[in-house]
Write a structure and sequence with these properties.
The protein has 262 residues and is of the alpha+beta class. The protein is 24% helix and 30% strand.
């Protein structure tokens, strides 16, 4: 509720960390680290449907956490044997950090950023977005928000060419054609205050050395591409910048023109 006692139309999201740092009881050395994040609505009134949706989401977090823990417990037996044989110790890790990309009366959008390393050779990184209708709690599909998906990916192609000119990657629209029949369920995306962002992890569109591609199509780039229900009307907000390869085009000086932000 606000200071006047009215129920807020904007949910405030609480992130709760669930983690474990497991170690060998004999040597005291670490074996593995796991981290996941659960999400909750702070307000007790006005967001019952959203809260129920978060409860279901948190159940999947618990299930995923249990699967990762079981896998690492199994690998730890081999790890201890290798350490006893004189091999260098490997501390396994599987971390997921959760970021709130948008939270208002229309949409709650979160991005999970995962880093994992089970061998000590290198870390693997992946991103996954989850988008909820604030009023109904429904998990939104990509085409719930983006009405002109083909036009959207044509703009993504153009931005990929301009923002990642040195990357030898498949056109995002070609990748999109392969997952369209599954209603884009394999696409990682979030809906923010400025537009819809798609995330292509390292190796998805090109080689490992091409890195990841993070591309935002802005609401003002088209009048009829997006469902107006999910186009942000907020005047004041925070725009999260999470990775160093996330080119943005924002009106940072209020002159009505977008500037490139790197």
């Amino acid at each position: 509720k606000n200071k006047k006692g009215a129920v807020s139309s904007t949910p405030h999201i609480i992130l709760q960390e669930v983690s474990e740092n497991a170690h060998d009881s004999d040597s005291g050395e670490y074996l593995y680290n796991i981290q996941r994040m659960k999400i909750y609505v702070k307000e007790e009134e006005g967001f019952e449907s959203l809260s129920k949706a978060f409860d279901e989401y948190n159940k999947t977090v618990d299930e995923e956490y249990a699967d990762v823990e079981e896998t690492m417990e199994g690998l730890s037996k081999t790890e201890l044997e290798e350490r006893a044989g004189g091999f260098k110790a490997t501390v396994m890790k599987d971390f997921t950090n959760t970021h709130v990309m948008r939270s208002d009366e229309s949409v709650v959008s979160i991005l999970n950023y995962n880093e994992s390393d089970y061998t000590g050779a290198k870390s693997n990184y992946s991103r996954k977005g989850y988008n909820f209708d604030t009023k109904t709690g429904e998990m939104l599909s990509f085409t719930d928000v983006v009405k002109d998906d083909e036009g959207f990916f044509q703009l993504v192609d153009d931005l990929a060419d301009s923002d990642y000119p040195e990357s030898n990657i498949t056109k995002p629209s070609e990748y999109a054609k392969g997952i369209k029949d599954n209603d884009y369920k394999d696409l990682s995306w979030t809906v923010g205050y400025e537009g819809v962002t798609v995330y292509f992890d390292r190796g998805l569109l090109g080689s490992f050395t091409d890195g990841a591609q993070v591309i935002t199509v802005y609401f003002d780039q088209s009048d009829d591409m997006f469902d107006t229900k999910y186009v942000s009307k907020e005047e004041d907000y925070v725009f999260p910048i999470l990775v160093d390869n996330m080119p943005l085009h924002l009106d940072i000086d209020g002159d009505g023109e977008r500037e490139s932000v790197y």
